[in-house]
Structures are given as C-alpha cells and as structure tokens.
C-alpha cells in the first residue's frame, strides 16, 4: 500500500479526545519528527530521536504517550525529564493542552525554586504525568514523595543539554529506579558517548528517528526582539504600529481568544484592525484578507493556522505578540512579509522566561536577532503631528471653509480669544484616541537605558544554565555554587520579592490547607501582587490573612487560597475584574 503524500493526525490511532485537542490547538499536519515518532511510540517501541529543538518533539512524544495513560489509576504513569525549569514548564503546558479533554488526567511540573509545599500537596493529590528537572525529581524520590514503581513511560528531553549541565549522573540514577518494563523515548540534538551508553544500558532496542536540521535563512527580513517590560505588550505593539507608514501588519497571537482581545484593544486605540482565527468561516476569512489588501484594514491579528497561505504584498511588518514554541512556526510567521524579494521587518516579543526560546530560534535560523528600542514618546508625537498636518492639508484643498470661518470668528468674539487661542483650544478638545501630547515614559519602561533588569539581554552562559543552576537550584556567589538548606535544589529558600514577583501575605495559620489558583493577568498587564490580594479580599470577602503566596508571571499569576472555597465564590471571582482585566480565575492544576 502506497504511503499518502501528506499524513494527518487522524491517520494515527490516537483517541478522539486527543484529536479534538489537536484540532482546538490548531495543529494541521504532523511535522517530520511527529510523523515518524508517533506510530513507533503508539506501538510500544522505545525511540531514540536525534533532532534539534523546535522541530515539534513535545507533540511527537506527548500525543502517543498520553494516549497510553489510564486516568483511573491515580499514580505517576509518565515522567519527562528536562534540563531547565523553563523547558519543564513549557513541556508541562503543552501536555496539559494535549490532554485537556481527558477527564481527570493531571500533569504536574516539579523543579527547583518552586514552593515545596505546593509540590508536596499536588503529589499527595496524585498526578499522572510528572515533568521535572533531574535534581528536584531525585529530591522527591529520596523523600519518598514521588513513587515511580508503576511508571509506564520515561522521556528524556534534550539529553545532550542535561549532559552539558552536569545532570547525567542524576539522569542515570532516575533511569535505574524506573521499572525495566517502562517505555523510553530519548531526544537529543547530538549523540555524545555518554548518551550512547545510556541508550545501550537502559533502552530496549530503540528505533532511531533522525531529522536533519535545515538551514533556514530569511536575509531580506530585518529581525528584532523586544524584551517585555513594565510597559506591557499592548503599549509596545501600539507604538510599533504608530510608526508604520503605508504598509500593513500581521500580528501573531497563540490563541483564538487572544486574537479577538488584541484586536478589540487596538480598535479602541483607533487602529483599523481585524481578527483572523479558526472560528471564522471561509467567507469571513476571505473578506478579511480582501480588506487587508485594499487598505480598509491595516492590522490583522491572527493565529498560525488562520494565516496559512496568507500572501498580501503590502504586509511590511510581522509582530510575534506571543513567541512561538516552534522555530519552524517562527519562520513561517515572518515569511508573511518580505515576499518576492521585497524587504520586511519582524519583531518578536520576549517575556522574562522566554529567553531560551529566543536562542532556539536564532540557532534554527542561523541569524542573530537584534534587540529593538521602541519608539520614544517624542517620535510618536512627531509622527502624529506629521499625519495631522497632512490631514489638514487635504481638508484645506478640498472643502469650502467659509461656513466654518464664520463660526470660528463668532466663537472667538464670544470667548474674547484671538484666532491662535481658539485654534489651540479646539486642537486640544479634538484629541481623543491619539493625543498629540503623550506622557513621558521612564527609560526602563521602554527596555532602554542602562538597567539590565528590564531590557538588557542576559549572557548566554548564565541563561543556558537557567535559575536551576548546575543541579536545578544552587545559587552562585563569587563564582562558586552555594546550596540553600532544604534539599538538593535549595528550593525551600524563597527568592527576594522584587526579583521573583512574589508577595508574602500577612501571617496565617500554618496548618491551613491551601490550593493554587491561576489568574489570567500578569506583569505585562501592569498587575502587582497587592492588586490580586485586594481584588480577592474585596470581591470574595476573604480576609487577606487567608490569602497565601501570590506569584506573578509574564501573562498570568497564581495565588494560594484555602481549600474548600464555595463554588459560588469561585464563579464570582472567575467573572470579576482586576485592574480592568477579567480575572478568569481557575484551579491551577485542573
């Protein structure tokens, strides 16, 4: 039987719940590594994957191995080891999205620097999939808080990176402790001798899948990244769009909901904008593209799937509002500009925990992405004034102003003003969505100036180790690694509040059992810990003493609240607002 030209996910023997999740996420066709790996893992084979980061490995192992989990058995059945906490979080989020339609299936990330109590409570409740860094996994194994005797599958993601960071002994110890009958998938960009020894010692006749890395060049597109600061993504996006002259812009967001939200907020600022996502039928999609071509729309906010095949000559700027997890997706995105030899510009918004993804994209494209300085208030004001002058010139050439001159003369006389005073007053009153005078921003909000904490790019050596350090959580002082008390990762000691985005609530009963909730608002929305505590205390009438730790991330936050919150209170909080943004509060591990 001949192989079809292009496989679909429906061609694999994946459960309907996973296929629906794939459809919701927007995956269309498997990448090369997914096409080769998924059938092998579904058949129960061990797999040795040799592939670069950004080729779609997470779905390659996640989809088939999740399909083999029995959610009725409330113990760890799948363990994924990752070299850094950033990658562990990224993989956990992806696996949660793949399993969103499987009732009761729980995914838990565990890594150094994370609150131990939170991890212990989650492990006690039970999780089917554990995604962790080697040091913290061993910590829990030694404490007896993580049981892996019934493990069905083990995944080593970026094995060569774990070797480089000094985790190889930890990895081998974990592999020894797992059942011999477990299925193993190991992924590595290179295959050093120590990794080869692991495959021979602990894997069962692995099938090799090798994906050749491609040199991806986009030399006619100038590429820049902007480090997300307190200014926030929306303000940064608006400033970039203000400086666009004549050409159109496509902005990529990760979800359908985000395309609508960003479009609405830009429209409120006076931009001609439309959303483009998978919820639109073909007629609506074609109408939006025609509006973009004709100039009645200048900005389109799109998901990756909705923008497939989009070819509009006037697109001069591509903005990655949400950084893609896949370098191939990045290349496809920025390829919407710079068509047919024309030049284009691409900007990538990078959150504080997304530096690693930036470096992955640079390696894949073999191009350095330069840091971007956002337009200043003075530049924006100059551009607005220039456009206002052009509008006035057009009006002066085409309209009979005699009637308005009579009115202005009467107004000036009635108000006892000269013509310049009246003109200045009308000019001030006429400003609405885009005033000619803007409030000045301090340099750190723009990601400029000398502050390394806001806009400067961290060194690659420091970033590559991550905050997990050499073994998931040691601190470095004077070039020497120092461990904190409380375990191998030193995770018991809490980082300083101004660096972690974490706030301590007033002292509460230490025996009170807490659970973690996710709030759809974070640093980039201008949220501070006090805003979250205040909103919950006011809306739910919960004493601030009963509100636990608040942690701020780039686009979301988490908060600890007492176990057993009435359903009505949770629903009310879910519908409430924080700093004019919907809270959308849900249990973090649900």
UniProtKB/TrEMBL annotation:
What Gene Ontology terms describe where this protein resides (cellular component)?
cytosol; ribosome
In this chain the Helicase C-terminal domain maps to 236-380
Specify whether Transmembrane is a keyword of the entry: no
Q: Where is the composition biased (Basic and acidic residues)?
A: 457-512
Q: Where is the Helicase ATP-binding domain?
A: 38-209
Q: Which domain of life is it from?
A: Bacteria
Query: Reaction(s) catalyzed by this protein?
Result: ATP + H2O = ADP + phosphate + H(+)
Motif Q motif location, chain numbering: 7-35
Supply the alphabetized keyword list.
ATP-binding, Cytoplasm, Helicase, Hydrolase, Nucleotide-binding, RNA-binding, Stress response
Question: Which GO biological process categories is it annotated with?
Answer: cellular response to cold; ribosomal large subunit assembly; RNA catabolic process
The listed locations are: Cytoplasm
EC main group: hydrolase
Pfam families, per this entry?
DbpA, DEAD, DeaD_dimer, Helicase_C
For this protein, the record's InterPro entries field holds: CsdA_RRM, DbpA/CsdA_RNA-bd_dom, DEAD/DEAH_box_helicase_dom, DEAD/DEAH_RhlB, DEAD_box_RNA_helicases, DeaD_dimer, DEAD_helicase_DeaD, Helicase_ATP-bd
Chain intervals for the UniProt region annotation (Disordered): 434-512
Query: What's one GO MF term for it?
Result: RNA helicase activity
Which EC number applies? 3.6.4.13
Domain DEAD-box RNA helicase Q: residue ranges:
7-35
**Which PANTHER family does the entry link to?**
ATP-DEPENDENT RNA HELICASE DEAD (PTHR47963:SF8), DEAD-BOX ATP-DEPENDENT RNA HELICASE 47, MITOCHONDRIAL (PTHR47963)
Role: DEAD-box RNA helicase involved in various cellular processes at low temperature, including ribosome biogenesis, mRNA degradation and translation initiation.
Which family does the record assign? Belongs to the DEAD box helicase family. DeaD/CsdA subfamily.
Protein name from the UniProt record: ATP-dependent RNA helicase DeaD
């Amino acid at each position: 039987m001949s192989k079809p030209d292009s496989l679909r996910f429906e061609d694999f023997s994946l459960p309907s719940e996973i296929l629906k999740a794939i459809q919701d996420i927007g995956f269309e066709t498997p990448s090369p590594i997914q096409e080769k790996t998924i059938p092998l893992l579904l058949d129960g084979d061990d797999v040795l994957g040799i592939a670069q980061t950004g080729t779609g490995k997470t779905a390659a192992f996640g989809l088939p191995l999740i399909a083999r989990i029995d959610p009725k058995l409330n113990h760890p059945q799948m363990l994924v080891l990752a070299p850094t906490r950033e990658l562990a979080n990224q993989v956990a989020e992806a696996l949660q999205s793949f399993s969103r339609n499987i009732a009761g299936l729980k995914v838990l990330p565990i890594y150094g620097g994370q609150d131990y109590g939170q991890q212990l409570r989650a492990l006690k409740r039970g999780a089917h999939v554990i995604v962790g860094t080697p040091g913290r996994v061993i910590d829990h194994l030694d404490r007896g808080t993580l049981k892996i005797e019934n493990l069905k599958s083990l995944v080593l993601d970026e094995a060569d990176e774990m070797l480089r960071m000094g985790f190889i002994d930890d990895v081998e110890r974990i592999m020894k402790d797992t059942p011999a009958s477990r299925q193993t998938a190991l992924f590595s960009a290179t295959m050093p001798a120590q990794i080869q020894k692991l495959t021979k010692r602990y894997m069962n006749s692995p099938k090799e899948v090798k994906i050749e890395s491609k040199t991806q060049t986009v030399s006619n597109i100038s590429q820049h990244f902007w480090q997300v600061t307190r200014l926030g993504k929306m303000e940064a996006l608006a400033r970039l769009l203000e400086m666009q002259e004549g050409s159109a812009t496509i902005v990529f967001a990760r979800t359908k909901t985000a395309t609508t939200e960003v479009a609405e907020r830009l429209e409120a600022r006076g931009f001609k904008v439309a959303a483009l996502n998978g919820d639109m039928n073909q007629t609506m999609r074609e109408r939006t593209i025609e509006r973009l071509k004709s100039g009645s729309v200048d900005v389109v906010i799109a998901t990756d799937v909705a923008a497939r095949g989009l070819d509009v000559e006037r697109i001069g700027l591509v903005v990655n509002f949400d950084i893609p997890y896949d370098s191939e997706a990045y290349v496809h995105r920025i390829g919407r500009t710079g068509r047919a030899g024309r030049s284009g510009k691409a900007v990538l918004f990078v959150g504080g925990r997304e530096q690693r993804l930036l470096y992955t994209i640079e390696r894949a494209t073999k191009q350095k992405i330069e840091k971007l300085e956002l337009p200043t208030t003075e530049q924006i004001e100059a551009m607005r004034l220039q456009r206002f002058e052009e509008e006035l010139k057009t009006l002066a050439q085409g309209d009979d102003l005699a009637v308005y001159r009579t009115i202005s003369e009467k107004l000036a006389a009635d108000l006892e003003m000269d013509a310049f005073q009246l003109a200045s007053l009308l000019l001030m009153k006429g400003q609405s969505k885009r005033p000619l005078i803007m409030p000045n921003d301090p340099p750190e909000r723009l990601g400029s100036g000398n502050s390394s904490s806001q806009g400067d790019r961290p060194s690659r050596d420091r970033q590559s180790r991550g905050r997990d350090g050499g073994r998931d959580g040691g601190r470095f002082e004077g070039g020497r690694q120092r461990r904190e008390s409380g375990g191998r990762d030193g995770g018991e000691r809490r980082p300083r509040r101004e660096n972690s985005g974490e706030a301590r609530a007033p002292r509460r009963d230490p025996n009170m059992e807490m659970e973690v909730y996710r709030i759809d608002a974070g640093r980039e929305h201008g949220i501070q810990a006090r805003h979250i505590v205040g909103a919950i205390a006011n809306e739910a009438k919960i004493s601030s003493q009963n509100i636990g730790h608040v942690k701020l991330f780039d686009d979301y936050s988490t908060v600890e609240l007492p176990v057993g919150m009435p359903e009505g209170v949770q629903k009310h909080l879910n519908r409430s607002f924080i700093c004019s943004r919907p809270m959308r509060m849900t249990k973090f591990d649900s």
